[in-house]
Q: What sequence folds into this?
DNA sequence: CACGTTACCAGACAATCGTTTGGTAGATAA
DNA sequence: TTATCTACCAAACGATTGTCTGGTAACGTG
């Protein structure tokens, strides 16, 4: 066993799972081979089947643990005692920070869900609609409290925002530049500014 | 030859290229097989090599034609005689509309560039930096003309916006709902609102 | 009619893939 | 000591992959 390859002090199975996330992030799930994962762990590919059932098994685990963490963020925001606009700011901040703190996991999460089987794909779609519903509710509450522009369409603001956050892992590089907290703050401010600032703009537009 | 499979009146080679885009969009480049493409065209897989040199050849053609169209959009905006904020609105509108009018092509473009060889990957990265530079310049011009919020960081606004547009193909469904033009307009207004509206928000923040 | 070109098909190729099997050195437990 | 369990290795498996080869029916051109 090589302690430089094996992580600090987690179980061997977690090492395998972490290696899989990195490999799937680098090559994409379909192009990545079980052999790639095994090499990163430091065993032969057949040996991986001592820890896993299948290649898809590796992928689906990425989604399970991600779902737990996102649920915690939404619950935290729900329990806040603050105006809707502040809840919105907080949600965007926390969700941005999660993307920045889990770059590989986040990018695998929203890029590779097609390769799950039908049952799990349904679960992912349901989860995504949960984010969307949560954010749309937040935006509508902001409107109801008179803090949002009148012509604002919560559905499109929602898609716009979530897509922007999903893109974080594709350009953010860890070393140098601003901290993850600063960037998450900037993202939160941008969304808040967008929600407050669209007012006059939608004058005279015809719904197509 | 089956006229229901073959397109209206373009060359057979274009049929192959179009089929490839659809298959790559549905399954992802790595998971899609040459056989899948051949089936959609209506020939055996070996026959495709009469039209193409390799599988990667199919992919790289997606990028070539996309680059031409995006260049046209940027040139059109550059030639506008209007305030920077209006140029910005126009750029976001046109670029959104392109994504909505080329759903499969757009999603393949920004998801599958990893599977190109090193030379073409470099070209893609250069092109992407071209968008970013173009948009950042536009944002800085808007600031210089006093139309943008003071605390606004053009780099992050740029990443935020481009990621949001890249996400369009992942949620937009063609039938029903608002027209592509309406959505592109809404996206343009959101960006304009965000640029104008971030002013007071960044008070008291410390760069990390 | 002869001839070259177009647009394929049929079949094979080596390589790679995910997965299974049987085995085994070393640690632990009885 | 013997038996059991853990954590692998070595080797093979059938299937699928991208690609190549040789052939050929249909067709336009001289």
A:
């Amino acid at each position: 066993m090589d302690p430089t390859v094996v992580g600090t002090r987690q179980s061997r199975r977690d090492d395998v799972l972490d290696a899989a996330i990195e490999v799937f992030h680098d090559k994409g799930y379909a192009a990545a081979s079980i052999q790639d994962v095994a090499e990163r762990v430091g065993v032969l590919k057949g040996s991986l089947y001592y820890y896993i059932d299948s290649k898809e098994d590796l992928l689906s685990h990425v989604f399970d643990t991600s779902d737990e963490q996102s649920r915690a963020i939404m619950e935290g925001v729900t329990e806040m005692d603050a105006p809707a606009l502040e809840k919105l700011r907080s949600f965007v901040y926390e969700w941005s920070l999660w993307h920045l703190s889990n770059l590989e996991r986040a990018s695998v999460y929203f890029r590779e869900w097609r390769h799950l089987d039908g049952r799990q794909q349904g679960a992912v779609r349901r989860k995504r609609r949960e984010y969307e519903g949560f954010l749309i509710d937040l935006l509508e509450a902001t409107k109801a409290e008179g803090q949002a522009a009148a012509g604002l369409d919560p559905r499109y603001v929602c898609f716009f925002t979530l897509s922007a956050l999903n893109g974080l892992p594709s350009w953010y590089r860890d070393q140098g530049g601003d901290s993850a907290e600063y960037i998450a703050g900037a993202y939160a401010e941008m969304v808040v500014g967008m929600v407050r600032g669209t007012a006059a703009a939608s004058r005279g537009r015809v719904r197509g």
